[in-house]
Automatic annotation (TrEMBL):
Radical SAM core domain mapped to chain residues: 143-376
Pfam families for this protein: B12-binding, DUF4070, Radical_SAM
This protein's name: Radical SAM protein
PANTHER family found in the cross-reference section: ANAEROBIC MAGNESIUM-PROTOPORPHYRIN IX MONOMETHYL ESTER CYCLASE-RELATED, BLR2995 PROTEIN
InterPro entries reported in the protein's UniProt record: Aldolase_TIM, BchE-like, Cobalamin-bd, DUF4070, Elp3/MiaA/NifB-like_rSAM, HpnP-like, Methyltransferase_Class_B, rSAM
Cofactor section: [4Fe-4S] cluster
GO CC annotation, single: cytosol
One example GO MF annotation: catalytic activity
High-level lineage: Bacteria, Bacillati, Cyanobacteriota, Cyanophyceae, Nostocales
Keywords tagged on the record: Iron, Iron-sulfur, Metal-binding, S-adenosyl-L-methionine
Length: 490
């Protein structure tokens, strides 16, 4: 993909960088792109880190490297806010979102230039309203290095799914930015790179439907003024399908992808994990409604629920066939701290802390059987023929339902043409010539090339190749069975 080297920029720490005093000199490093160098540690007065649970080993390694150079280390963000006990060696912990703790931290660092004798914790009691959040420091990053850009509109989710820590970390009453803030961030992003798509990383884009309805006319107007330069994607609950007015506005704003945490096609299983919002209408019907507005659905699937049986893998694969969803994130269940699931399993003595396992849950089915169910689902879901069948369905029944966007200067710029040619050339070479599934690829690609459907060919070629290679790695036990896997890999 040319200059693309990572999926999305780490927006949280870019916001922190923008919030720091303007007179502070800030050097931003995303280790998804390249690791910090020894010279970076030597340059710094303070090393401020953020990350998620799965990055815990690297977070702690950064702390060690910074301490070797005698630097103060600060850790904030989602992982430490949920589990401060994971990070006993950091000098300072920032727990919670931006707020009064951030101000106390800045004041402390202004007055202290040596490492503290023992760990200090600043915990947010009063959150900074999202309406006062700064625009992320996009001037510190080149967005051309990322597959997608991202934006946050809201924080929090009204639902209480058993496995999710969002309500306890960020609250059940969604807090919102203003539409003007979102547009300012989009403008700032465009100055920092040639965007193709922007992902709304809200825990639930429609957690407050009234606020989403107020935002969408601004997004529509922004797209029209700028010549529809980007596609939007978001995360939402499946009951979005019951809001036709909202869906019509999302279509007009050029939302093309929606991630839905479907989790399981089994109604009794959804009820057992407190995900009854997925039962307000038949799941397959809801997916078809979303497709009818031009939105390709991406689904989250969980394996290892207490309601699973030896037939669960068969039912998931049949659901994938019937739903025609191309991309699914299929994960083993993992209990996160500060969730109802964690508390229930802790009380039942079913939490397992073993770094040779993929999950910390003692499943009701045998552990190895659950792992093999996951492996079977992930490898069969992404067999080239099966995957391309589902993409073909969406090319025929979903993508044509999107609005016809203009051939504006923003869309037909030389930068976009060059990027498209790079992608297409690499796909035709690496997939069409060298991939072990090239015959299946050409069955899809030839009609698309003849009809001039290049944009969809690039989308299917890129995403499909990633998924197929990922599944092959899963078959060889080279990938984790969960985003939160505790298994240590070399």
């Amino acid at each position: 993909m040319g200059n693309v080297r990572a999926f999305m920029p780490p927006q949280g720490i870019l916001i922190v960088a923008a919030y720091l005093p303007q007179e502070w000199e800030v050097r931003f490093i995303d280790e998804n792109l390249h690791p910090a160098k020894k010279a970076d540690y030597q340059w710094a007065d303070v090393v401020i880190v953020s990350g998620m649970h799965i990055q815990k080993p690297q977070i702690n390694q950064i702390n060690q490297l910074a301490h070797r150079e005698g630097k103060i280390t600060v850790l904030g963000g989602p992982s430490v806010s949920g589990c401060p006990e994971y990070y006993p060696d950091f000098d300072i912990l920032h727990l919670g979102e931006l707020g009064d703790a951030s101000d106390r931290l800045i004041e402390y660092l202004d007055q202290n230039h040596e490492r503290p004798p023992q760990q200090i914790r600043f915990e947010t009691q009063e959150r900074l309203p999202l309406t006062e959040f700064p625009t992320p420091a996009y001037h510190l990053v080149n967005l051309n290095h990322y597959f997608l850009a991202n934006v946050q509109f809201s924080s929090g989710c009204p639902y209480r799914c058993e496995f999710c820590d969002i309500p306890e970390l960020y609250g059940r009453n969604p807090r919102m930015k203003t539409p003007e803030q979102v547009l300012a961030e989009l403008d700032a992003m465009r100055k920092s790179g040639n965007l193709g798509a922007v992902y709304f990383v809200d825990d639930n884009f429609v957690g407050d439907r009234r606020a989403a309805m107020q935002l969408l006319p601004h997004l529509i107007d922004w797209q029209k003024r700028n010549g529809y330069p980007i596609q939007f994607a978001c995360e939402a609950t499946l009951n979005l399908a019951q809001s036709p007015k909202l869906l019509a506005m999302m279509r007009e704003a050029y939302f093309c992808t929606v991630f839905c945490g479907i989790e399981t096609p089994e109604p009794e299983a959804l009820h057992s994990i407190s995900k009854d919002q997925n039962l307000s209408m038949p799941i397959l019907e809801a997916i078809k409604v979303l497709n009818s507005y031009g939105m390709e659905v991406v689904s989250g699937i969980i394996i290892g629920l207490d309601t699973d049986t030896p037939e669960t893998a068969d039912r998931i694969l049949e659901f994938i066939r019937l739903s025609q969803i191309p991309m699914l994130t299929i994960n083993l269940l993992h209990a996160l701290p500060r969730t109802p699931l964690w508390r229930r399993l802790e009380a039942e003595g079913r939490l397992v802390f073993d770094e040779s396992r993929e999950s910390n849950v003692e499943f009701l089915l045998p552990y190895q059987q659950v792992v093999e169910m996951w492996r079977r689902c992930i490898t069969q879901a992404y067999q080239p023929e099966f995957l391309y069948q589902r993409f073909a369905y969406n090319m025929e029944h979903t993508y044509p339902n999107r609005i016809a966007v203009p051939n504006s200067p923003a869309r037909t710029s030389w930068a976009n043409i060059r990027k498209g040619l790079t992608y297409l050339t690499n796909i035709l070479l690496r997939v069409g010539v060298f991939a072990n599934y090239r015959q299946v690829f050409w069955q899809m690609a030839k009609p698309a090339l003849k009809s001039g459907n290049i944009e969809n060919l690039i989308h299917v070629g890129l995403v499909g190749h990633h998924l197929i290679k990922f599944a092959q790695d899963c078959a060889e036990n080279e990938e984790s069975a969960s985003f939160y896997s505790q298994k240590i890999r070399s």
